[in-house]
Amino acid sequence: MAKLKPLQKILKDAKLNMEKKRLVVRSIGLSVLTLHAGTWTGLTQGEHEAWQAGVFKAYQQVQPRDAQGNVRHVSLFELARDMESPLPMELLYVQRLRLLFHIIQVADEYMIGAVSYNHHVMQDRSWLYGAMKAVNWMQRQIGDMLVLAEVSELEDRQTWEDLRPFAGMSKKNVKKAQKSHLIKIKAFLTVKHHAEEQDQMLREMGWTLSDLMLAVFVTWSLVQRISSSPPAAQAWFENGNEKEAERLDEEDRKQGVAMHQSGLQGAKPDCLWRQCEEHELQATLEIREDFVQGQHDPTTEELHCWSQYGLLPPGQGGRSKTSGRPVGLWT
What we know:
By secondary structure, this protein is mainly alpha-helical. The protein has helices spanning 8-11, 18-33, 45-60, 76-83, 88-106, 109-122, 127-142, 157-163, 167-204, 209-228, 230-239, 242-254, 289-293, 300-309. Helix 4 packs across helix 9 (167-204), helix 5 (88-106) packs across helix 7 (127-142) and helix 5 (88-106) runs antiparallel to helix 9. Residues 238-261 are annotated as: Disordered.
């Protein structure tokens, strides 16, 4: 967000329409925010929340402001719609997919070998595992017909070679998946808006919240049972026996007849973040009191240590100072 600070005055200008604001934020804000994001492995919960907050803040820049310069509070879905950009995790999926298909297209032996070996060692902590989650997301957006089945079989080295001729097509399909995702966001917000209007209308007619919840539950239960479990629906309608209907519904599910409940048992949810490991909770740099409070000049050993971290300033152990530009060079 530091890149956007010099542009705050421009982005706050009421005369600047949202389309131009989007161009500014995409070119300067999102391009920096997503730099190297495609190389990230699975995020921890803290990293996931930080990523969500960063994307939320970037998307917020295109929103209109009041006289005090404040932005009205809207949901993340609305911000993504106005920004015409994916939700935070979906944005990360897009970056991973772009990098994955680029690696397939370039077909660098060392890179593919490193990715494969990392997956062999780290399994669900590897980068390839996260890329496969992105592929699954892509399939959900545009269907299996446009995503080659072999993309899910990259554990085999030969598959990388087989997919190379189709890498360009896959890159185009990533754009289609992103567009499909944006359409779903708009559809969700439209349905949500209609639902709020309908709820308001029912309240004005005298319906209470408990009445609304009961009506929705009963209607949905009946629809599901009628469409997928006829015996349970018959027990519900003829006898009004809810327990008997649930028993028959459970039998149908075990037999694979109740289609609305099939496929859910044993399904592993696609968690957006992972549990933090023990070594990640430890400080990577030890804080030493003599370094913090010491006033003496750094020793050669200390300079060498900090040079390894790349934190020394130019001309003082870091890179060499750049020569000043000659006067009148551009005149």
